[in-house]
Design a protein that fits this description.
Elements (H helix, E strand, L loop, with lengths): L8 H21 L12 E9 L2 E9 H7 L13 H6 L1 H11 L1 E4 L2 E2 L2 E9 L4 E9 L6 E5 L11 E8 L2 E7 L5 E5 L8 H17 L1 H12 L4 H23 L7 H18 L10 H20 L8 H30 L3 H29 L1
Parallel strand pairs: 1-8
Antiparallel strand pairs: 1-2, 2-6, 3-4, 3-7, 5-6, 7-10, 8-9
Helix pairs in contact: 1-11, 5-10, 6-8, 6-10, 6-11, 7-9, 7-10, 8-9, 8-11
Length: about 375
């Protein structure tokens, strides 16, 4: 090969060495996300104003509550079960009392924690709270200063029902207060839609296991049509299972899904050593896409959205995942196709990176099995 794309033997060896170090780093990074494979910084709250009493059902990932109140995580596994929630009830009530306040017409509404339970299959917790105001509020303010103690960027998807009419607001650290006026018209659901789209984008961009899987799929190169077919098969498959799980039609346990995702990464890495390009690879990609879709769904299920919130959240979240995926591929695909024109990369670099992907997937599989 001639021109600027050709590498001298010395430069080629250095290029492969750099690739090897990058691949080794990739393999070493994978297990770091084992405990929080698909952690999300989102909680949901459905609030109902009935006369002078405001009832709230708050759903969040048990990991988030364990980080906020590490003392109630008695076995120090980073998650919470029903027994730990029961034992830590007073600590939870104090945290909510200090971090979630309601005022009606400028007067505070005393809070009580009615119930707390774990959705152990989904990795979520639900907290039922009650705020008793002195009278029917004309002006109601919800202040979620508890967001300061949660992960940076955490968002609270709040839905308020007054006289049967829903209003939606997305709260974060910079916008932790929500004031509602009885005379004001109900707000739209656009805030929640935008927030869930953003969450979907963040989920795919920060989901290292999904990104490594996508990298492995396109690493072998091939005709653009074949590569697009692979990506389309993955997209269609994970959209199907994401919907099935989010709508509670069928959702296998994360104890099965997370190790299976790790195995899919290892398989792609090994398969790259034998296939020449992405032709006909869409079939296996579709199968693995079904598994990854269940992983995506965990981000929605663990925040305990109400049934009425799920359809909108599902559409917005899936849209965000697709936008994030397209963005990553738009950056990675041209680079990989250009790199494959370099002999050192095509002959040795692809194998080195594929071996690292296979090793990373295998290590991640063992780590996820061990953490269950």
């Amino acid at each position: 090969m001639t021109g600027s794309m050709a590498l001298s033997p010395g430069r080629a060896d250095r290029a492969v060495a750099v690739l090897a170090m990058a691949a080794a780093a990739l393999a070493g990074m994978l297990p770091e996300r084992t405990a929080d494979a698909h952690a999300v910084g989102v909680s949901s709250g459905e609030y109902r104003l009935e006369g002078p009493v405001l009832y709230g059902d708050i759903g969040m990932a048990d990991r988030e509550l364990a980080r906020l109140l590490p003392a109630i995580d008695s076995n120090h596994d980073g998650s919470l079960d029903s027994g730990e929630l029961t034992a830590g009830r007073e600590a939870i009530a104090r945290a909510l009392g200090a971090g979630l306040a309601v005022t009606a017409d400028g007067r505070p509404c005393p809070q009580s924690l009615d119930r707390a339970w774990a959705m152990e299959a989904d990795g979520g917790v639900v907290l039922q709270v009650r705020f008793t105001c002195a009278g029917v509020p004309g002006r109601l303010t919800l202040a979620a200063t508890i967001l300061e103690g949660l992960a940076p960027g955490h968002r609270h998807l709040a839905r308020m029902f007054r006289a049967g009419k829903p209003e939606v607001r997305v709260l974060d650290r910079a916008h932790a207060n929500w004031t509602l006026d009885a005379a004001a018209p109900a707000s739209s659901t656009s805030g929640m839609f935008r927030s869930m789209v953003k969450l979907g984008i963040e989920h795919i961009v920060t989901g290292l296991d999904h990104l490594v899987f996508l990298l492995g799929l396109i690493l072998v190169g091939g005709r653009l049509r074949a590569l697009l077919g692979v990506v389309t098969a993955f997209t269609l498959a994970h959209s199907i299972t994401l919907a099935l799980a989010a709508l509670s039609i069928f959702a296998p346990s994360p104890r099965l899904v997370e190790p299976a995702i790790a195995l899919s990464i290892a398989y792609v890495g090994v398969d790259n050593l034998f296939v020449k390009d992405a032709t006909r690879r869409w079939r296996i990609t579709f199968t693995f896409g079904l598994i990854h879709g269940f992983g995506f769904a965990g981000a929605l299920r663990e925040i305990a959205l109400s049934r009425s919130q799920v359809p909108l959240a599902l559409v917005a979240f899936n849209l965000g995942v697709e936008l994030g995926q397209l963005g990553v591929l738009a950056l990675a695909l041209p680079v990989i196709l250009a790199a494959r024109r370099i002999p050192a990369f095509r002959d040795r670099g692809v194998k080195v990176i594929s071996l690292a992907i296979a090793l990373g997937g295998a290590v991640l599989f063992v780590a996820r099995i061990a953490s269950r």
